[in-house]
Amino acid sequence: MASLDSSCRCLYSSTDEGRLAPIPKPAVFACFRRWKPPACFLFNHQQPDTAREPSSCKRWPRDLLLDLSPCSRWPRDKADKLIQEVFQLQRWSMWANKVTKQVSQQDFDYGCPSNQEWKVIENVDSDDRMILSLVRDCHNVTQCNIIHAFLIKQGFILDAILGSSLVDAYAKCGNLEYACMVFLRLTQQDVVTWTALIMGHALHGLFEEALQLFDSMQQMSIEPNEVTYLCLIKACSVAGALAEGKHIHVHLASKGLDSNSLIGNSLCDMYMKCGSVEEGTVVFRKLPSHDVVAWNILIGGHAQFGDGYEALKLFQQFQDSNVEPNETTFVSVLQACANIGAIGDGEHAHKMILEGGFTSNIYVGNSLVHMYICCRMLEEASLIFWALPNRDLITWNTLISGLSQHQLATKVFELYNQMQESELAPNDVTFTAILQACSSKESLENGMQAHSDILKAGYESNMKVSRSLISMYVKCGSVEDVKAIVCTLPQGNTFVWNSVLTCVLQHGNIQESLSFFWEMRQEGIELMEATCISLFEACSSSKDLWFLMEIHAYAVECGLEGRINITNAMIGSYSKIAGSRDLFHLFNRLPCRDADSWIVILQACMEERRVVGRLDLLDQMMQEIVGPDLSTFLSIMGVCSNAGSLIYGMQTHMYIVKFGFDTDGIIGNSLIHMYMQCGACYHSVMVFDNLKVQDIVSWNALLTGFVNCELFEEALQIFNHMQRHGIESDQVTYVSVFQACANLTAIDFGHLVHTSIVKCGTDLGLKASNSLIDMYAKCNRSLDAASIFLTLEERDVASWNVLISAAAKEGHPEQAFHLFDWMQADNFEPNDVTCASVLHSCSMTADLKRGMQVHIMAVKKGYDLDTFVGISLIDMYGKCNCLQDAKHIFGCLPEKIPIAWNAMIAGYIQNSQLQEATGLFQMMQSEGVVATYTTFLCMLQVFSGLESINDARNLHALIIGSGLLDSKISSLLINMYGRCWHLETAGMVFNSSHDQDVVLWNALIASRFHSGQAREALQLFKQMLLGPVVPDQVMFILGLKVCSSLAALEQGKEIYSLIIQSGLDLELDIGNCLIDMYASCGSLEDARVLFHRLPEKDLVTWSTMISGYAKHNKYSSASSCFEDMQKECLALDDTAYLCMLSACNNAGLVDDGVCYFKKMRDESGLEPTRQHHNVMVDLLGRNGYIEEAKDLLDTLPYVTDIVAWTSLLGACEHQRNLSLAQQCFQHMNDKDAAAYVHMSNLYTHLGMQVNSEEVERGRKSNSSWKMPGRASIEVNGCVHEFAVGDNSHPNSKDIYAKLKSLRMQTVFSRVPRLKQIQGLSPAQEINDVSCGHCEKLAVVFGLLSLPEGTTIRIAKNLRVCQDCHHFMKTVSRKECREIIIIDTKYVHHFKDGVCGCSGPG
Question: GO MF annotations for this entry (predicted)?
Fold first, then answer.
């Protein structure tokens, strides 16, 4: 084919030079070079004059036609075709008249005349008007060719009007080659002709050519008109050519045409569609007047390309301008509401649509349905759908797609069936939505039915439908069907296989992906670039190095290694799997690499913390990359920020300065962010200070950085500086401020900021509103948080999560459950954060049923693989005593971070499986997982329970090595050493602590107290009061417990006075401990008075009072208190029932005890624990029901402990039941001395002295241990402690002399009993060691030290024996003293020789 210029000369060569257009210069019409001249126009114009006479040239000889072109000879078949078209010319005229008539009758048929019509049509003479009408009525290229040939034959001169019409006709029919040739043939190319050609190129997407034509038009000194500019603006709008559009805008502004309404609207539309919403708004503001079209463009642009909130604000301004909205206005407004979920504004727009009568418009109706679906109001969308008078395919597809997105498969198929009944044929969008709804095995049948309909409709070859089919079968687990589809799809094998593999990869099925990959290799199918990248990404997530290497090898075979995108994806995968050494080796061998490749290497180096020795990487990168741009430095800083690499960050900063980017505002803000992420706040401030323009983005970067670095006070100071500089805050600012206030619990500052926002009428936006709710919630202002939540016009899942999480953390699980149910009822889909928060609430309440429901939901949504959801599940199952489920979840976690290990260890602790917790901790260390602060807290509890001093010391060394030793850890160390009976080491930890705060004092005093050194604990408490440490609530509670154990009533009262001074006397926990202290010290009346004075009472308060009555053997008072507690509508717990069973046991009321035991299970739904069964066994055994007690022990669902068997053995001793006693003795621990004592006494009572001696020998050989008895008494504010046979007291001589005198008075009255029971004479009894029992020594010391008439109060750590009980009775009668002894079961109140208990003696 000849060149364009030569073709043009050949086409237009003629003797009549005056009728020929000049040939344009190639430089001007460079855009024409790619067009090929149409073959039918390559003939010579040297025709006979008769050619211009219609009547004299009815038929053209074929030879004449063949000789028309001197430049080329046509083949005979093409000549015949042209002759046939010419002969049909006159018939075309008649057909055009017929078309015109049909148009007037509004019954127009665009089809060409039939063959029969062609035969009827005769020759018709035509004038210019007829020809112009025919040209404008052309609707395909064939018709244009016929008209064009007729014009050439008849010799019509193509003037500007006719020529531009023919150019326009060819352009609209899609044949731009012919349009260009006609344009070149014109005698004169005026603005109309140029505009027609430009419009044709613009209509068919050739925007660059259209703009080149515009430049050529200007070079030819042709002045464009408004239509030309409109065509160009439209071209820029569709092509997204913002730079060219701005150039045209400048040109228009120079001529003053930008104020024209039509051009201004087009410019505004162009800017909007090119993404430059701000410039479009500026054009709009400059227009002299704003009609509805201008407003629609502005609102629609913001709705589609900008900010939906701004679009709604503009709609409000539009309403104030008194311009009437039309259908397009409401379509744009509804689109904005749909994008941001503004249901309130959407409902308001809906109301206006109803008032304006626009509901019949199909576009408005479709937008309404779409808006309600996007706002998750599916029922309203369905109502709107069925209320529409007209429904087209888009309407049906909108509702079907919305239901499909919410996985409502049943409703989707119901609607699909109704659509088919309406005789409306579904399209590819319909089938795609239906297939998306089939996402589980249960919906496979429906998916297969949809597949059948797709085949019937002929959409199986549609690309989008094919991919949806493959995705559907993959989701439903039907891989064989996927393979069958591969064989039936009409696309090429390469594309189909790659599509299937990509789809399987998207659903995370690595094994199936591997299977498909191997089949592809066997079939010899090449990988496509996108599929190869997806495979590399899958390898990164699965950490499968072997699979990665196979893909790499096959990519090389397919010739993909040289592509830069493949290269970057490949090294990105290797960086996450292989070591840095292998990665660098691969990187050096790459055939091509760019800045992104270097950034991947830098990221790998930073993540492995291999900075030393690799500092030259950035230097090498800068040498290899010629002229790094802004995006390169932004990417490098992003990597430095994520890795927290300050060294690389500072090196990058140096290169930024070197290349002159340091003055750029975006770079400056990114530097601030990078330094903040690296913890270098000082460097961030320096960069900020050096910025030329400190805009809102810079301030926000600094403010957000301080918040992320947990420098919350400094962040608020930055905010104050920002306000003083007059910088207007935005939503990002308020998010950071509220976060800082939340972490500081600075509710006053936060409330002040909130108040100023309300006064200014600032719209916070959804994210800032969520932060505000979170701030109030964390500051314990839950009512304010809920109030703001309820006032939100729109909410997202984060809004719900903030409230649910706050309720869970504040200990209100029921409120969290209520919010969770409300959220789902409001059509919000819970996400992983929601599941974690609700599971935390389930953990708090041990609500296994609800926790399992959330677990099922998480599995369906795929959240169970999320690390934090998995950790919450472990915590929930651990606290619900389902350790097997917890271990299963732990084993299935894709990534076991330290928090997961901590949760599992805590679960073992929760279920008292301390050895398993120790084993898991050792496994954690062997796998190289770094122990965290929480890990050490858990393990300190473990080793405290195991009392393993060696493990304790090893853990102590690990803690010191980790650098995590603080006050809380030290307090737990003290507690652990105290439990291991290493009080000296505990004291050393305390003394070595720099900050001996109240927490450490609490731990030290508690370790002494729990080790049985209550007197030393009380002394430490007094010592603490002498120092600067202010006791807290925990310290006061601990002090009261110490006084309770020592019966130090006066000391307890002094602590009470300190509590009143501290303002803690109204605290409920303090009140409960005071009641227990008074009751334990024998002052039951004071306990009762305090109980009635408490402003509020909880279950612990009532249970403490009942326990006090039980210790004092006041059953009637305990029963009355229990009934009063029930009247308060409190949910009874196991502790309340345990106290009542103890009251029945102390009073010996078997029937009442059995009644409460049954009521606990039947009425309250509580399962009795081991402690409840132990009390019942003691109650039955002590009252003669030993067989029933034995039956109860035998029927327990768990292994009984030694307490129950010891109680039953004691009852057997009392009842002289040898056979049952021997059975009980078999269950006892060899180290328990009590069992040997009971058994030896029983043999003695039965006269079986030999057996008794044998049992005694067994006790000694097994080294059985019995806790030494200790008794304490408070005298003149000082606690004195006595042990059995104690001679360490300074007044020991006086004490033993007085004791011997008392014994002489009491022993002879018991001679018959002594002989019967023990076989001892009175002289032996006087010299027996029981003479020095600790409580006797304490009582004697009280008689010697306290004034006459003063009550003697004694506390003992064991039960009072029969001899001492009788001794106390006698002493109280003979000495006229009131004696109160508190042992482990009773408060013995001796007065006038009588004890208020029903105990021994």
Answer: RNA binding; zinc ion binding
pLDDT score of 213: 78
Rounded Cα distance, 1022 and 1055, in Å: 10
Contact status, residue 921 vs residue 939, Cβ threshold 8 Å: yes
By three-state DSSP, how is residue 1341 classified? helix
* CA-wise closest residue to 1335 among 1312, 1305, 1369: 1369
Overall residue count recorded for the chain in this entry: 1401
- Can you give the three-state secondary structure of 232-286, one letter per residue? HHHHHHHHCCHHHHHHHHHHHHHHCCCCCHHHHHHHHHHHHHCCCHHHHHHHHHH
Which helix (H) or strand (E) element contains residue 607? helix 595-607
Q: Which residue ranges in the chain fall short of pLDDT 50?
A: 1-126, 490-492, 610-613, 1311-1330, 1401
| Two tokens, residue 319 | 């309403």
Give the pLDDT score at 1354. Answer: 92
Strand, helix or coil for residue 1390: strand
CA–CA separation, 636 vs 619, rounded Å?
A: 13
C-alpha count within 13 angstroms, C-beta hemisphere, residue 1231: 2
Q: How many Å separate Cα 417 from the centre of its chain? A: 37
Say which residues have a Cβ less than 8 Å from residue 623's Cβ, sequence separation at least 6: none
Paired with 420 in beta bridges are none
User: Tokens at residue 1112, please?
Assistant: 């004092």
d(CA 774, CA 1100): 32
Residues whose CB falls within 8 Å of the CB of residue 519, separated by 6 or more in sequence, listed in order? 497
Q: What is the pLDDT of residue 1020?
A: 92
The pLDDT value recorded for residue 1261 is: 77
- Describe the crossing of helices 617-624 and 646-658 by its angle, rounded to 10 degrees: 30
Alpha-carbon distances of 1141 from 990, 1131, 1209, rounded to whole Å: 42, 17, 20
User: What's the CA angle centered on 996, arms 992 and 1001, to 5 degrees?
Assistant: 110
For tokens 């954060």, name the residue: 833
d(CA 1081, CA 1044): 6
Cβ–Cβ under 8 Å, residues 857 and 821: no
For residues 1114 and 1121, what is the distance between their CA atoms, to the nearest angstrom?
Answer: 11
Rounded to 5 degrees, what are φ and ψ at 1389?
Answer: -115, 95
Cα gap 1108→1091, rounded to integer Å: 11
Give the separation between CA 921 and CA 942, rounded to whole angstroms: 10
Output DSSP code: residue 18.
Answer: G
Question: pLDDT per residue over 1026-1062, tens digit each?
Answer: 888 999 999 999 999 999 999 899 999 999 999 999 9
Residue 1039, classified by CB atoms within 10 Å of its CB into exposed (0-12), middle (13-18) or buried (19+), is: buried
Contacts by residues 60-65 (CB-CB < 8 Å, ≥ 24 positions apart): 60/86, 60/153
Dihedral of CA atoms 1175, 1180, 1186, 1191 in degrees, nearest 10, equals -70
How many Cβ atoms are within 10 Å of 1362's Cβ, its own excluded?
A: 13
813-825 helix and 797-809 helix, angle to the nearest 10 degrees = 160
DSSP state of 1282: E
User: Which residue is it, tokens 């789902």?
Assistant: 824
What pLDDT is stored for residue 484 in this prediction? Answer: 58
The whole-angstrom separation of Cα 211 and Cα 70 is: 36
Distance CA 102, CA 409 (A): 49
Helix or strand or coil: residue 133?
helix
CA distances from 819 to 375, 1187, 1355 (A): 19, 53, 51
List CB contacts of 437: < 8 A, sequence separation 6 or more.
403, 404, 407, 408, 409, 412, 413, 443, 446
1381 phi and psi angles, rounded to 5 deg: -120, 125
Strand, coil or helix: what is 1275? Answer: strand
Mapping DSSP to helix (H, G, I), strand (E, B) and coil, where does residue 432 land?
helix
Compute the distance between CA of residue 832 and CA of residue 835 in angstroms, rounded to an integer: 5
Distance CA 195, CA 167 (A): 10
pLDDT at 1001: 92
